[in-house]
Design goal:
By secondary structure, the protein is an alpha/beta fold. Helix content is 47%, strand content 16%. The strands form 4 sheets. It has a 5-stranded parallel beta sheet with strand order 2-5-8-1-9. Helix 2 packs across helix 11. The chain starts with a helix and ends with a helix.
Length: 327
């Protein structure tokens, strides 16, 4: 690939993301960092865990994103009585006109391009595991038969940080399957005014599709071609290692308050997200700043605090800041 071809591909990549974010911005007020993080995760082929109090537009974000990329969308409301078959589908008895009977697979809502797993921590671990298997393998096995999930498959799961009663927190190993965890902030006063003006008017703006879902897969492949020099790759590896309390270069906050650090899957997500961030910055190479930008959203759900850290209200973002300052 010549330098001119690289430049054109990079420019088209940035233009497409710009169109996507602009179109979603016509519906969703503010939340630019949340939107950018979600787009990076989608292009990377990962999945997102959204955390925020009710009413911040998490569902609207996912639905609008699906409409903007011409993707099939499904919303699953997780409840304690939800069963794995309610997600994946099941074999049903079908009777034909001649009176013959046969079993036929009826796909569940997980067979979509973009899936909203609303309040995922309200379902039982068995049901959570059924969804996370589909996320990891991009396929569903029912009665010994494997059914692939074709094309774009992007899961955005939400959880409410306030309600603890009647919830089943995701185990650490399952949290690690998410590419990133995005914290959805409460809107500022000006943004809240814009939300009121937009949502209480006679007409609500409609989303126009701006990209085919296949284009997202192409962009993800292009991002993987972005080179990173050994020094930058080593910086990503060292950053993840410093989240472990037994690392010789771990900063004080990690040694004191962290029980387990980020996994190798976290370093993979960190590097891939940094490549996409580099493209959006108009560069055909990864820099240390890309890794620093991606570190909070990629690592915060992969750092497990010990009892002392929880007792003193230390959060994972405090630990990540300490890790970044240690370089």
């Amino acid at each position: 690939m010549t330098a001119e071809e690289q430049r054109k591909k990079l420019q088209l990549f940035c233009d497409d993301v710009g169109k996507l974010e602009t179109e979603i911005g016509n519906i969703l007020v503010g939340q630019k960092n949340v939107l950018r993080s979600a787009v990076i995760a989608m292009i990377a082929g990962g999945h997102v865990l959204l955390e925020g109090v009710p009413g911040l537009g998490k569902t609207l974000l996912v639905k609008t994103l699906a409409e903007a990329v011409e993707a099939k969308f499904s919303r699953i409301q997780f409840t304690p009585d939800l069963m794995p078959a309610d997600l994946t589908g099941t074999n049903m008895m079908i009777e034909n006109q001649e009176g013959g009977r046969r079993f036929e697979f009826q796909p569940g809502p997980v067979f979509s391009n973009i899936v909203l797993a609303d309040e995922i921590n309200r379902a039982t671990p068995k049901t959570q595991a059924a969804l996370l298997e589909a996320m990891q393998e991009h396929s569903v096995t029912v009665c010994g038969v494997t059914h692939p999930l074709r094309g774009l498959f992007f899961v955005m799961a939400t959880q409410n940080p306030l309600e603890m009663e009647g919830t089943y927190p995701l185990p650490e190993a399952q949290l690690d399957r998410f590419f990133c965890k995005i914290l959805v902030p409460f809107p500022a006063c000006d943004e809240l005014v814009a939300i009121l003006n937009r949502t209480t008017a006679a007409e609500f703006p409609k989303v126009q599709p701006v990209l085919p879902s296949g284009r997202i897969l192409e962009m993800g492949q292009l991002a993987r071609e972005i080179p990173a020099i050994d020094e930058v790759v080593r910086f990503a590896a060292e950053m993840v290692l410093r989240t472990h309390p037994d690392s010789p270069h771990a900063p004080p906050l990690v040694r004191k308050y962290v029980r387990f650090g980020a996994s190798p899957r976290g370093s993979q997500a960190l590097m891939l997200g940094a490549k996409i961030n580099a493209v959006l910055d108009g560069r055909f190479h990864v820099a240390r700043e890309d890794l620093r930008t991606l570190a909070p959203m990629v690592l915060r759900h992969r750092i497990i605090l010990n009892f002392e850290g929880q007792a003193e209200n230390i959060n994972a973002d405090n630990v990540i800041e300490d890790v970044l300052r240690s370089f």
